[in-house]
Amino acid sequence: MTAPDHRVPFANAEVVPEAQEAALRVLRSGWITMGPETQAFERELASYLGARHVIAVSSGTAALDLALRALRLPPGAPVLTPSLTFCGAVAPILHAGLRPVLVDIDPEMLLPTADCVAVAARRAGRPAAMIVQHMAGYPADVAELAEAAGLARSAVIEDAAHGLAAEDRGVRVGTASHAACFSFYATKNLPIGEGGAVATCDDGLADYLRSARLHGLSKDAWRRYLPGGSWRYDVAEPGIKANITDIQAAIGRAQLNRLSPWQARREHLAARYDAALAGVPGLALPRRPPYGRHAWHLYQVRVGRGYGLHRDLLIEALRARGIDTSVHFIPVHQLSGFRAALGPEECRSVPVTDQVAEEVLSLPMYPALADSDVDRVADALLAHADGTAAA
Ligand SMILES: *Cc1c(COP(=O)(O)O)cnc(C)c1O
How many angstroms does the Cα of residue 198 sit away from the middle of ligand 1? Predict the structure, then answer.
């Protein structure tokens, strides 16, 4: 086949002109690290989410790290987590000296069900905490999973890196647990480049996070170099260095104003994929939540045995046609460092995850993706469905 004249990239980080201007405004202002823009971003995101507090940090991984530290669990305490997740969501469990206990998933939803959680909770003995991940933007039922784990909501942390703008029964993801952790990494639904945030309704946790993200400095010490700021501070408990900057916060504020139209575009693209791919043999399309709203961070299909090519060969065939895709995720227990930390028995405990990990494929999905690009991806998937098309 002829060389494609234009590629369909897997991701595209759109930074709107207002965000570019906002970043310049901060750069020229004389105050470029965490400060007033950060406070405004936190207020605006809290209002969007309906959360009492938002604490902005340097990354989604840092958000999870801080939220886990805040639980002050004893060393070795078991923490439930899916394995089909990003390594950055499991490393903080190890860093906190805790023990990840893997939860298997439902092959259709790609999320743990209450039964999966109950099985893992029994294996863990008595889990101390749980991380609930809103895979691809599908809103997990936090209350139901917490009950299945026998955990209070105060022991549940949401990995909402994919969950921004998802809704569960009319309520935006971000308030159902002790701490909902968001990411503003370049490919996420609200791209800043780097950045993260914790949403919480717990005043004590919010105080802890505001201090712990900046060395553990006492309240308002970030102001110490601002006009009128005091040089005095205390550190009651040494923290980490994981603050966001005002440059990022200013970008985030402007991007947040675009989130609703971006989400509408993602919904449109998902519906277009659904219609174009319905009935392709061997291809399972993403589930929609029976109540609520998918955030469509990813459009993930499963390439099953009935499809003409194995997933890995399909990735190569699509690449040859100028279409880039990705895989979310390589389960953490298949990564060598985690495999060693988890041990062989734990790694054998999630057979559905192992099977699904061979099949998942994420197609391009971002607001700037053209309808014609969706059609091109769908045509390529149809062409290879019976295994006879040339790559
Ligand atoms: C992106 C991501 C993270 C980590 O976010 P960073 O901001 O990159 O640190 C955590 N969990 C999931 C599921 C993610 O996709």
Answer: 13
